[in-house]
Write a structure and sequence with these properties.
The protein has eleven helices and eight strands. The protein is of the alpha/beta class. The protein has an eight-stranded parallel β-barrel, surrounded by eight helices. β3, α4 and β4 form a beta-alpha-beta unit. The chain is globular, with a radius of gyration of 19 Å. The protein starts with a strand and ends with a helix. The structure holds SN-glycerol-3-phosphate. SN-glycerol-3-phosphate binds next to α7.
Length: 218
């Protein structure tokens, strides 16, 4: 499983990259809006692409395919790491297929059903982002969609990567890995929660305590 970070906060990205576990990054207009003050949209993306040695999703905001393709081409010029994030819609499908023809990778976002996902696959998206937490929010089981997509992708030997998004807690990550998802994009806080376990902390403390009694050095 690959770990992406779901943020546009450059310091947080830098920190998690230093752990040696980071494969990519996803942003969206909401996450970018939280970071205003760190430079222009393009500047922030450039900084992120310099840190992350893997795909960095940057989202378009145009209402139609023509505009999305234009914005996508502009974003793709920032770095070879940029993947153009396109919301699922009819216009989005046209844009995904148009950008694919230009050799630009896309990530289809705001996916809430298997039908939407398969249409985006057909349009040539490189990544599909089902939003798990938001499905949970409205009383569905987001992880059921991930399992359905794994089965559907398997049925048709789809090579598009399944990128589990809208992750809210460590259990979402565990469930995504058990379902066999390719990638999970994780908020900074959840990254910390994943690394922690109270028994690990107690174990470290006990080892150090016993080592001190020994009085030896390494
Ligand atoms: O990757 C998508 C993510 O940023 C959306 O998360 O918590 O706003 O549903 P959330």
């Amino acid at each position: 499983m690959k770990f992406f970070i779901d943020t546009a906060h450059v310091d947080h990205i830098q920190e998690v990259a230093s752990w040696g576990i980071l494969d990519g990054c996803t942003t969206n207009p909401t996450l970018i809006s939280k970071e205003k003050g760190g430079g222009s949209f393009q500047d922030v993306l450039k900084q992120i692409c310099d840190i992350v040695q893997g795909p960095v999703s940057a989202e378009v905001v145009a209402p139609n395919a023509e505009g999305m393709i234009k914005e996508g081409k502009t974003l793709a010029k920032i770095s070879e790491h940029i993947v153009v994030k396109i919301p699922m819609s009819i216009e989005g499908l046209k844009a995904m297929s148009g950008l694919k023809a230009e050799g630009i990778r896309t990530n289809c976002t705001l996916v809430f059903s298997a039908n939407q996902a398969m249409m985006a696959v057909a349009a040539g998206a490189a990544f599909i982002s089902p939003f798990i937490g938001r499905l949970d929010d409205v009383g569905h089981l987001g992880m059921d969609l991930v399992r359905d997509l794994m089965l559907a992708f398997d049925n048709y030997e789809v090579e598009t990567e399944l990128l589990v998004a809208s992750v809210r807690n460590p259990t979402h990550v565990t469930d995504a890995m058990l379902a066999g998802a390719d990638i999970v994009t994780v908020p900074y806080q959840v990254m910390y929660q994943m690394a922690k376990h109270p028994l690990t902390d107690i174990g470290i403390e006990k080892f150090l305590e016993d080592w001190k009694k020994l009085g030896a050095t390494i």
